[in-house]
Here is the input.
Amino acid sequence: MNDDFGVVVSAGSLRSGGERAVRFPHRWTPEGVTVEADFTGAHLLHLAAAGCVLNDLYREAAGLGITLDGVRVTASGGFDTGNWASTGIGYSVTLDSAAPAADLDRLLDVVDEVAEIPRALRAGASVVRGPR
Here is the structure.
């Protein structure tokens, strides 16, 4: 088993300044987001989960009237390299905000419930190749 598939996405005051960070435009932040990830299938799977959580933090914060100055989401997990089955994905969030801790905790709970990619992964998703 290999657990070395960590990724980091960040925005606002928590954007990465590292030379390996790739920058992308972002709907909710004028400076865009930074992504730190290798380009493997395992990393991309984790990046999908982390990116979705970051996006939904900004979306849900706006709906709750919470200002986020910065967001960093780290996701990682293992793969059984014998059959390349995921052993699960874990993520953690760092927020930079003047909002009360209780409001930020509520935001994290809401996002954990509604984030589309984590929800699809938790439910199990069918992947089918189409015709040539």
User: Anything to note?
Assistant: Helices lie at 41-64, 101-114, 116-123. The longest strand covers residues 85-96.
